[in-house]
């Protein structure tokens, strides 16, 4: 193998050229991925810098959306690609521990995403304009009250306020 061939050889080709078994190759690949990920800044395959994922303008979400981290208090940037769908009536998104929906009646609602029956993540149904749990069929109104069991307890409701320009949704306890 000449020098030019070595320089253009990809990692997989190089490892195969060492005549290692499949399990050994997988271990090397996995170890390489874990090591690269733990450094946080490099893509394990291309070794190019990746975009940071700190909350803020890049994610469209700021504040706290998980109940385990204290009081719910977050804002959603609806101009961010991740959440832009929430500008369309009849859509919803799971954000942290909540389900946030823009109802077909053009109202924003935010509720606990955890079904009070056995904890399955609920969804918004635009056709019925309600919250539904696909696990056992419980239905909730947009204020969180039970419309149909087996769930018997309401979903916790949060305040969802849209900004005057329609671009920022603020959710608080
Ligand atoms: S977990 Fe939701 S209805 Fe059973």
TrEMBL record:
<feature type="compositionally biased region" description="Low complexity">
    <location>
        <begin position="46"/>
        <end position="62"/>
    </location>
</feature>
<feature type="domain" description="Rieske">
    <location>
        <begin position="97"/>
        <end position="169"/>
    </location>
</feature>
<keyword id="KW-0001">2Fe-2S</keyword>
<dbReference type="GO" id="GO:0046872">
    <property type="term" value="F:metal ion binding"/>
</dbReference>
<keyword id="KW-0411">Iron-sulfur</keyword>
<keyword id="KW-0479">Metal-binding</keyword>
<protein>
    <submittedName>
        <fullName>Cytochrome b6-f complex iron-sulfur subunit</fullName>
    </submittedName>
</protein>
<dbReference type="InterPro" id="IPR036922">
    <property type="entry name" value="Rieske_2Fe-2S_sf"/>
</dbReference>
<dbReference type="InterPro" id="IPR017941">
    <property type="entry name" value="Rieske_2Fe-2S"/>
</dbReference>
<dbReference type="InterPro" id="IPR014349">
    <property type="entry name" value="Rieske_Fe-S_prot"/>
</dbReference>
<keyword id="KW-0408">Iron</keyword>
<dbReference type="GO" id="GO:0051537">
    <property type="term" value="F:2 iron, 2 sulfur cluster binding"/>
</dbReference>
<keyword id="KW-1015">Disulfide bond</keyword>
<feature type="region of interest" description="Disordered">
    <location>
        <begin position="41"/>
        <end position="62"/>
    </location>
</feature>
<dbReference type="Pfam" id="PF00355">
    <property type="entry name" value="Rieske"/>
</dbReference>
